[in-house]
Amino acid sequence: xxxxIYPGSFDPITLGHLDIIRRAAACFDRVCVCVSxxxxxxxxxxxxxxxxxxxxxxxxxxxxxEAELWPGLLADFAVRHHASAIVRGVRNTTDFxxxxxxxxxxxxxxxxxxxxxxxxxxxxxxISSSTVREVLAFGRSVAxxxxxxxxxxxxx
Length: 156
Description:
alpha/beta, 5-stranded parallel β-sheet, 5 helices
């Protein structure tokens, strides 16, 4: 069984995240979405439990996708789930450089895992969780950036 990990802080999950999850689910037998609290990120809007619930709502129609909170190292999460791959979305060259470095680190910590980078399609490449949070903070609707069924107003 080929198992992939898709990690992120998902504050909140966006259409870009969901696109990567759907494509990974088509390539792997099982995809484990690793929701990380990521204390280094500033201006987080949602609690780890809320993020997990948002992800689970967004992937409810994907039978081979599950989501779980993980506060530790991604490599340890991959070992725990016997993953053979870590899936990452790449929007631009900045993302690529960051992900290349992370892939090398994860490979050193868990040599059995490879990082698979999926390029985000142009129609969702400009969507980021930080942009969603900023638009939301100014009282504007963010529905066009979010997976169907995600209503952030219920969490604020």
